[in-house]
Amino acid sequence: MSTHNDTAQNKPHKRTGGPNQPGSPSARGRLPKPKTIIVFLLIALLSVGGFALWRNLNESAEQQRIAQEEEERQRAKEAEIAGRNPRVERIISELTLEQKVAQLFVVKPEALTDVGVAVAAGDATREALTKYPVGGICYFAENLQDPKQTTEMLRNSKNYTKDACGIPLFTCIDEEGGTVVRVADNSNFDAPNVGDAKDIGATKDPEKARDAAFTMGTYLKELGFNVDFAPVADIVTNDSSVMAKRSFGSSTDEVTPMVLAQLEAFTRANVIPCVKHFPGIGDAEGDSHSERIYSHLSSEQILDGPAAPFKAAIEANAPMIMVGHLSCLEVEGGLPASLSPAIIQGMLREQLGYKGIVITDSLEMEAATMACDSNEQGVRAIQAGADLILMPKDFKKAYQGLLEAAKQGSISEERIDESLRRIVGAKLAIGA
To answer: What's the domain range around 53?
Structure first.
């Protein structure tokens, strides 16, 4: 019998895994290198730390949100107790002092951009309104070329102001009819001239006054205006007066029904009417554009006479009253009514109980510029009780003067907020 030599049995046994292979004993028992451990620990620590930071940030943001909501609720509660509009209070609270002061001015567009005649609102207007987000801009005939240009200019100005401070802009105009129009006499606009107040008053029919105001309010609103410095509530008994054609009549009974009819019509057209010129400049000699004008009536005589149509307008909730530059010698001495605490705060606010917006007549008129310098005009008007300062002779000087007074405390921020409540409230009410 022969035997078979199996060489496989004589070969040494081969390991299935080398020293660096997973199957080897040395691989199974080997520890990670120190650097690997450190990297792993760092990654773990960073992960835990990052999560903790993320959680803390989220918790902090949530706490801030809760605190802010609680603050808003508290502010709304305080506003409700004080009879104030919570939305108005929130808007005012978010304004800087500089923005608050700017809101108290109504200016010509040229006062913002320093151009000759403004007929557009572009980058220069945007920059100016960002720096000085004024409460309103008043436009004149030279600013208005045609409906398309006017609408675009007003729309842009409104948008720039809203972007700057979150508050709508008053877009203002003097459109009384007759001799005082900025739109109706321009053939590029399809706007009829409704005629002089004197002729409307002569009809003795308040419906004529109402129709005239609604006609004006309608075309002004379509163009983008939201404030008209009308109606005139002055009583004129002297035909030689510069106000003769602009007044509805020579007595309280003639003027008052016309003024009330126009208040209703402008409001229905969604344009804020501004009754002017308190306390009544109809029979004053001279023209406040070029000189001082005076009254020798006592406070009681004024209230029973030239101020009577204004009293009726206040009872009808007139949203805005313009104070003229009449110097009431028996009440305030030589100071114009527009800068007089005795007239605005004493007579209009306290005696007649007016709670709406008080705006001065244009402070670039000689009757006003003779009373004080530009840097004092805003300060004096606000101290007297006005809410809006119309066209100071030098806007930037007047603005700076009022801002410095607010910073130094001679005019309190609460006093400024008092005016802003009326201004912002009126703007929101009409969706300006």
So the answer is: 35-78
Longest dimension (CA), the chain: 160
Query: Is there a contact between 313 and 320 (Cβ–Cβ < 8 Å)?
Result: no
d(CA 273, CA 194): 16
Q: Which residues pair with 105 in a beta bridge?
A: 389
Q: Render pLDDT for 238-256 as a digit per residue (tens, 0 to 9).
A: 887 889 999 999 999 999 9
pLDDT band at 289 (very low <50, low <70, confident <90, very high): confident
Which strand (E) or helix (H) includes residue 136?
strand 136-139
Domain containing 175 — which CATH number? 3.20.20.300
> Tens digits of per-residue pLDDT, 2-50?
444 444 444 444 444 444 444 444 444 555 666 777 777 777 666 676 6
How far are the Cα atoms of 132, 156, 394, 400, 407 from residue 96, in angstroms, in the given order? 11, 23, 22, 15, 12
Instruction: Give CA–CA dist 214/268, Å, rounded.
Output: 7
Q: Are residues 52 and 125 both part of a single domain?
A: no
**Two tokens at 308?**
């009577």
Closest CA to 385 of 416, 425, 352: 416
State whether 209 and 350 are in the same domain: yes
- Quote the DSSP letter at residue 336: B
How many independent structural domains does the chain possess? 2
Give the whole-angstrom CA distance, residue 157 versus residue 163.
10
Q: Which of 200, 199, 195, 188 is nearest to 141 (CA)?
A: 188
Integer Cα distance of 197 and 209 in angstroms: 8
pTM comes to 0.82
* Helix (H) or strand (E) segment spanning residue 223: helix 206-223
CA distance 171 to 154: 7
